[in-house]
């Protein structure tokens, strides 16, 4: 966390203190406290205006006795799961005194969090700068700029942390640092967090306590919230994290080693990191799956025909893992439900995951995985 330097008018005078000196220093600034109250009110009002996101059903044969749901986070005002996180991060930073009027908020991001943070920065009237890899989808850059933010692009995705901290220090702004604070900024005990919302929406369903909830990790904050809530409310639901290629999370979880890194970045925007981020709570997760990028992309291509809409590839990563869990449950003769997340809309990735040219450039062949997904939807069998 970067704190803004004191200006000359804020500097405390030098004091010669005796051993029995009594001190009483009050630094409250009425103007700042008034701004802070209004900023917190505006961010809270955004949550109050926002209806809960939908829990969609993915049609499966009724005779399986297994229900699959998608928590549609794309309906948030900024179009992704990260809207919840950005709201929590802004409230956390504001109440900690880290965000100040007129000073910029800086964030390291793969795009969607920055879109949502740009929205909240504009809402409370502070500048916003997103530090992102140059390969970030152009549509996300456009959305950040639409909400009044600016983008600082770097060639090496691993540089986003250092560059963000440096920019915050140079400008006297605040580095939001979602990768550290995501797991602690959200109230995981309840207060309409994503886990609380899922369980409330399942109350009238045939299997109200799902066998599994699947998330894909970007910061790790969502999986931490889901797992903590499940344990806190004493449920039997398992938490599974689906991880893309080139991500450190799977290896870190497998060996319970937070020092694991990778040399290549994830091709699935929004999830997968080259290091195990501080917000990824290794001990809270019950199961992890490494999902091939081709499987993630094939899944959203097939899912478009099922749902009538495009989804981002991070959704495909989670849905592939959910399909595998459903397939295993069916093979064991189990009935129940599985929930995963629709993270953001596919329209943000038309030049990537929905482009055959991009797939060819990346050397990704999705045809075998498309066949497996289509067979699964008919038979419940996902293996080769």
Task: Give an account of the 3D structure.
The chain is of the alpha/beta class and 384 residues long. The chain has two domains: 52-76 and 189-379, Rossmann fold (3-Layer(aba) Sandwich); 83-182, Rossmann fold (3-Layer(aba) Sandwich), CATH 3.40.50. Helices cover 41% and strands 14% of the residues. The strands form two sheets. The chain has a six-stranded mixed β-sheet. The N and C termini lie far apart (48 Å).
Structural class: alpha/beta
Rough shape?
globular
**CATH architecture call of the largest domain:** 3-Layer(aba) Sandwich
The string of secondary-structure elements, in order, is HEEHEHEHEHEHHEHEHEHHEHH
Instruction: Tell me the count of domains.
Output: 2
Counting DSSP H or I runs of 4 or more residues, the number of helices is 13
Low-confidence stretches: 1-15
Number of strands: 10
N- to C-terminal separation?
48 Å
The CATH topology of the largest domain, please?
A: Rossmann fold
Please write the CATH class name of the largest domain: Alpha Beta
Oligomeric state of the chains in view: single chain
Mean pLDDT: 93
What percent of the residues sit in helical stretches (DSSP H or I)?
40-55%
Radius of gyration: 22 Å
């Amino acid at each position: 966390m970067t704190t803004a330097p004191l200006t000359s008018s804020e500097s405390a005078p030098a004091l010669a203190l005796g051993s029995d000196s009594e001190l009483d220093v009050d630094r409250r600034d009425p103007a700042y406290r008034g701004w802070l109250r209004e900023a917190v009110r505006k961010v809270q009002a955004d949550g109050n205006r926002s209806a809960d996101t939908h829990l969609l059903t993915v049609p499966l044969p009724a005779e399986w006795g297994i229900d699959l749901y998608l928590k549609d986070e794309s309906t948030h005002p900024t179009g992704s799961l990260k809207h919840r996180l950005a709201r929590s991060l802004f409230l956390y930073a504001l109440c900690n005194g880290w965000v100040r009027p007129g000073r910029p908020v800086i964030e390291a991001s793969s795009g969607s969090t920055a879109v949502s943070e740009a929205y909240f920065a504009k809402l409370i009237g502070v500048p916003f700068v997103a530090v992102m890899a140059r390969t970030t989808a152009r549509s996300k850059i456009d959305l950040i700029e639409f909400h009044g933010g600016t983008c600082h692009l770097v060639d090496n995705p691993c540089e986003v942390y250092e560059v963000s901290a440096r920019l915050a220090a140079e400008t006297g702004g605040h580095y939001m640092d979602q990768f550290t604070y995501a797991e602690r900024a959200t109230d995981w005990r309840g207060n309409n967090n994503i886990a609380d919302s899922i369980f409330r929406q399942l109350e009238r369903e045939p299997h109200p306590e799902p066998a599994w909830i699947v998330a894909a990790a970007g910061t790790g904050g969502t999986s931490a919230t889901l797992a903590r809530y499940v344990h806190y409310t004493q449920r039997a639901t398992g938490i599974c994290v689906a991880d893309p290629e080139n991500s450190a999370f799977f290896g870190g979880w497998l060996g319970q080693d937070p020092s694991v890194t990778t040399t290549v970045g994830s091709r699935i925007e929004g999830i997968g990191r080259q290091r195990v981020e501080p917000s990824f709570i290794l001990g809270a997760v019950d199961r992890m799956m490494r999902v091939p990028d081709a499987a993630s992309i094939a899944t959203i291509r097939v899912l478009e025909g099922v749902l009538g809409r495009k989804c981002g590839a991070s959704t495909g990563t989670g849905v592939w893992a959910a399909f595998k869990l459903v397939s295993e449950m069916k093979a064991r003769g189990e009935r129940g439900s599985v929930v995963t997340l629709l993270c953001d809309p596919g329209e943000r990735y038309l030049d990537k995951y929905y482009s055959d040219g991009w797939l060819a450039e990346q050397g990704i062949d999705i045809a075998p995985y498309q066949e497996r997904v289509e067979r699964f939807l008919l038979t419940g069998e996902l293996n080769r």
